[in-house]
Structures are given as C-alpha cells and as structure tokens.
Amino acid sequence: MVERIVGQLSLADGLVSPAAGGMLDELDAALNWEPVRALLGRRGSSGAGNSSYPAEVLLRCLLLGVWHGLSDPGLETAVADRLSFRRFAGLSLHDKTPDHSTLWRFRQELARDGLADRIFGEIARQLEAKELVLKQGTLIDASLVAARANPPRKPRSGAPADTPVKPSADPEARWGRKGKKSVFGYKIHIGVDAAHTIIRRVELTDASVTDTEPADDLICGDEKAVYGDQAYYTHARHARLTGARIKDRLMHRPNKHHPELPPRKKHRNRLIGRIRAAVERPFAVFKERYGMRRMRFYSLGRNRVHIVLACCCYNLRRAVGALATP
C-alpha cells in the first residue's frame, strides 16, 4: 500500500478557498506539525497497491470531529462539504475525502503502541515551550461519563429464578457513584496546570474506580503545588508530596475521630476550593461543546483514544485563547 499525495492546489482552490484568519487557521498555526508528523510516520510503503491517506490528514480530520462534536459518518460528510475543513485537513478540491471506515481504522491505529498519548505529550511539550504551562500548581479532578451502551438488565419480575441477566453491549463499563449520582460508564481523570488549565495528564478508567486511585499518575512532579478536593487527601500522599518538596493543597475531610473540621481547616478548604474550581473548565468543554455527555464507543480502549484526542483539542483551543490575550 502506498501513501497517496494530497493537498496539491489548483486554480479552482485559489478561487473558492475562504479567506485566511479563521479559528481553524489559528489552531493550525498554534502547533508546529513537523514533530507530530514525525511521530505519526508513514502509513504506506513503496510498491504497488491501494493508496492510503497520510496519517497527518486523518489526525487533523479526527481533531475536526472532536471540535465540532461529529460522529465519523457526520465528519465524513462535513469534510467533503466544508471548504474550511478541507483546508485544515490539507485536502484540495479534487482530493477524495476519507470515509468513516477509514477514520475508524485510523483511530484504532492511534490506540496501538500509545501513539495517541505520544501525540498528546508532544502538544503539551510545545505549549510548555510557549510558556503556557507555568508549573505553579497542578489541579486534579475526575468526572463521570455515561457509557454509550445501556447497563445490564435484570430479569423482569415473575421471570424464572434461573433467568440470566442481560449483559451490556459495553463489557468494560461499570457502575460508579459520586455524591448522590450513580452512572454506568467511565471516569475521566485529569491533571491541569493552574495558569491556563492546560491538561498535562489524563487517565480513563471504568466508573467504579475511585478518584484517589489514579491520582498519583496525575501529578507531574515538577509543579510547586497540587490542588484537589477532599477525595484525594491521604496521609501517604501528603508524605510523598512533602518528600518531593511539592506543597500539599489537598482539601482535608472529617473522619470518625474528628467528625467536625476546625474553623482553620474549613477556611483552608475554602481557599483551596476557589483555586481548584478551574479544573471544572475542561470537563464543561468536553460535555457542552464536544458532545461527550456520553461515551461514543463500546470499549475502554477506543474511548480512551477519543478522550486523549479531546484533551489535545482542548489544549490547542486554550493555547489560541491564551496567546491572543495581551
């Protein structure tokens, strides 16, 4: 299979292309794509065979899909119809656009060997080089997201006792609870830089995993402080942060020995809460703008790639806003 050549502009492209300066052009300019291109490598090889789309073209298409909350079939139609999408993806008017099955297969390629995570890391590295990651503090939090599939169904009342439970179409989703809310699905865990809420760490687990279990993986180690709500405080984590000379800004919680926090600790929690509240911004963007109130796929692996790409999209969008602010 050889890699097809795309993006060769014709006179028609110059006549109908929209004027530069839109949001997609700003997002394109916010990143040096050469290192990303090197990470992706070539999808084709020399010799005869069907041609394949360059990996960068497909990655740009998936990013467009996340920014606009599109399914793969919807993204296929949008890339074919919208000139701004074609220009961002690097496709000319006479180039055939990738179909939804091609986009699906490429997403599976990103899941192999942690390629999606390496792309996320490269974007974070470039934003750090632009001084958008100040490392004054890391804000950690988690959010439940419902699975695409329905939960397992119990037999109807009156059914024989040996009637089996109807399993869910998503075998890796689990029940989770936060406060009074129970959700069948997954949980997104992130660690963001306090300055511009650039996401530096991301994990996806099933919903049954508690907030505190993956918390140590969200701490980068080079920040000056770590902020989190009461779910994250443990004596062991406090000791690790102190040993690493990182300020512990995790909110304290009452326990059976001290059912009521003293006023000093309540005041400390309020001050921490004002700072850590900024970590809710990425979750709001995921759910309100990227259409991620429910997961899109039926497995942890595919959903994780989608979440990592959403973090890439969020970081690029935040970078454009931060760089445009005096």
Count, helices: 13
Order of helices and strands: EHHHEHHHHHEEEEHEHEHHH
Shape: globular
Number of DSSP strand runs: 8
Mean pLDDT: 89
Task: State the secondary-structure class.
Answer: alpha/beta
**Rounded to an integer, what's the Rg over CA atoms?**
23 Å
Kindly state the percentage of residues in helix.
Answer: 40-55%
Would you give an account of this structure?
The protein has 326 residues and is of the alpha/beta class. Helices cover 43% and strands 14% of the residues.
Salient structural properties:
alpha/beta, 6-stranded mixed sheet, single chain, 14% strand
Question: How are the SSEs placed, and which strands pair?
Answer:
Blueprint: E1 2-3, H1 11-16, H2 23-29, H3 33-40, E2 51-52, H4 55-67, H5 72-81, H6 83-89, H7 100-111, H8 115-129, E3 138-146, E4 174-178, E5 181-193, E6 199-206, H9 215-218, E7 225-228, H10 235-243, E8 247-250, H11 263-276, H12 280-288, H13 300-324
Parallel strand pairs: 1-2, 3-7, 7-8
Antiparallel strand pairs: 3-5, 4-5, 5-6
How do you describe this structure in short?
With 326 residues, this protein is of the alpha/beta class. The chain is built from 13 helices and 8 strands.
